[in-house]
Design a protein that fits this description.
By secondary structure, the chain is an alpha+beta fold. The chain has 4 helices and 8 strands, in the order H-E-H-E-E-E-E-H-H-E-E-E.
């Protein structure tokens, strides 16, 4: 029964994440979306995430094919699901952290840990400089209000910029954070 309710919550959160993905158009004239990490697939990400997180993925990834993309649903707890989107060859396209319910101080701190561990699993070194920028990006998303907000974190070693977009559906009490990568086509 718990697996069914987790799958239903994941489906609800996927529907909420579609509007986040569509809102994340960025500046399409000069930037293009790229894989988060060319060498990382969903299982590799889940393994790396579970090694560093106090809130590991519970159970196995649930796979769903949608057109040219594959979505993997990863339950964190009863209120938080991670949706890992990959292309047809399995390389990570974006990750959505979705939370259902009100966000109090404890939930915000949990989501900060999930966010930081997601970035670490994607290869962000856990040094003081990177953690400062990751925390600054998370704070800029301001999870406790309903405004659509974005933040960016450049990565010099990969010449990519991580883009984070927060969206809230107040009717369904769903807050989503989209993590994707872009490159500038006109350097």
């Amino acid at each position: 029964m718990k697996k069914i309710s987790t799958c239903l919550l994941a489906l609800l959160l996927l529907v909420a994440s579609i509007s986040v993905t569509q809102a994340a158009g960025l500046n399409e004239l000069t930037e293009t979306k790229v894989q988060l990490e060319d060498s990382l697939d969903a299982d590799g990400f889940a393994t790396a995430y579970n090694k560093v997180s106090a809130y590991p993925i519970a159970g196995n990834l649930t796979k769903r094919v949608q057109g040219n993309y594959i979505s993997y649903f990863a339950g964190i707890d009863a209120s938080t699901v991670m949706i890992i989107n990959a292309n047809q060859v399995g390389r990570l396209s974006n990750i959505v952290i979705a939370h259902h319910g009100a966000i109090d101080a404890a939930e915000q701190e949990k989501l900060r840990v999930v966010f930081d561990c997601t970035l670490t699993a994607l290869g962000l070194k856990a040094d003081e400089n990177n953690l400062f920028f990751a925390n600054q990006a998370f704070d800029r998303l301001s999870l406790t209000n309903d405004t659509l907000l974005a933040a960016r974190l450049p990565r010099e070693e990969t010449k990519r910029t991580w883009t984070f977009l927060k969206a809230v559906n107040p009717e369904k009490q769903v807050t989503t954070i989209l993590i994707e990568a872009v490159v500038d086509q006109n350097p």
